[in-house]
Write a structure and sequence with these properties.
This protein is an alpha/beta fold. Helix content is 34%, strand content 20%. The chain is globular and about 50 Å long. The structure holds guanine.
């Protein structure tokens, strides 16, 4: 993978603050990745500054049920992110055999606790508990995951992607945006947010005909893929050289490494890496959502 060392500084405004972002120079012959790590570091330091001026520290409640190792790793990451910017994250753990009513009661109690700004229930939960019931119970004003029907927040992955593209000055207006996947928490809200940004949005999914993927990809200015099937989109597809590829898929291969839906280093203007790409944007968006909740205390 080629990376350029030559950097250009350019200012951008983000939530009333001015930053200089180191932006990589582009050249048609060199494949570049968006530097998401740099962007996330900048945003986190801005959040840390905002939080340091607050009299009351923001408080995030993370509710976990059972002992899913992947969930434990995600929760560790969320707590680490929170601590880095000065958010207090409290975890409430329940055993896997907890009844739904006990869990919903705990959520109701936290809804009424004014010391808690945001609540999330780490998924998956045991099959005996309905995710829909959880989502209908969390106060929409505290639903920082953005999962509940009336949530006042954008779901974290689409929000993270839109914020990043905005900071990178992606030309949304009239752009052909293709979203692959139609899940409730990524594909559908992603398409909605891109439409709100004035993109021409096409949503593809498991029932889309193979040739139609080729057709829509060849005309896309932006492709967001969230299917979780590693290396599905390769160089046998045609892409506009000016296209931006956003890879939401993360799959652990037999080689033990993490892979995205796209093979790396496709001949396009920008492609997000896996790992170190959208996952970081999702984690950042949770902190941003919590700060919005704090503003509406
Ligand atoms: N499990 C995997 N990702 C997520 C997430 O973003 N939020 C919650 N609550 N659970 C998850």
């Amino acid at each position: 993978m080629n990376r350029l060392d030559v950097r250009q500084g350019h200012p951008f405004c983000f939530q009333d603050e001015l930053f200089f972002v180191m932006k990589k120079q582009t050249s048609p012959s060199i494949i570049l990745y968006m530097d998401i790590k740099e962007y996330v570091t900048l945003r986190k330091s801005a959040l840390k500054n905002q939080i340091s001026s607050l009299t009351k520290k923001p408080r995030l409640s993370i509710i976990t049920v059972g002992n899913d190792p992947a969930s434990e790793a995600y929760v560790r990451g969320k707590k680490k992110d929170a601590a880095e910017v000065g958010i207090e994250a409290i975890q409430t753990w329940f055993p896997g055999d907890i009844s739904e009513e006990t869990l919903l009661d705990a959520i109701r109690k936290q809804n009424n606790d004014s010391s808690i700004d945001g609540i999330l229930v780490q998924l998956p939960v045991p099959k005996s508990i309905s995710v829909e019931h959880i989502n209908l119970t969390i106060d929409p004003k505290k639903d920082v995951d953005g999962f509940t029907p009336l949530s006042q927040f954008r779901p974290c992955t689409p929000r993270g992607i839109i914020d990043y593209l905005t900071a990178e000055k992606f030309p949304f207006k009239g752009a052909n945006a293709v979203v692959v996947g139609r899940s409730e928490i990524v594909g559908k809200p992603m398409a909605k947010l891109l439409l709100e940004k004035d993109c021409n949005v096409v949503q593809l999914h498991s029932k889309t005909k193979p040739d139609d993927f080729r057709f829509y990809f060849a005309h896309a200015d932006l492709i967001v893929s969230a299917i979780g099937k590693m290396n599905t989109w390769d160089a046998s597809y045609s892409y506009r050289p000016s296209a931006w590829l956003i890879d939401v898929g993360i799959t652990r291969g037999e080689d033990g490494h993490l892979h995205g839906d796209f093979v790396p280093s496709l001949p396009v203007a920008k492609q997000t890496p896996v790992p170190g790409g959208v996952g970081l944007l999702t984690r950042l968006a949770l902190l941003e959502n919590l700060m919005e909740a704090v503003k509406h205390r």
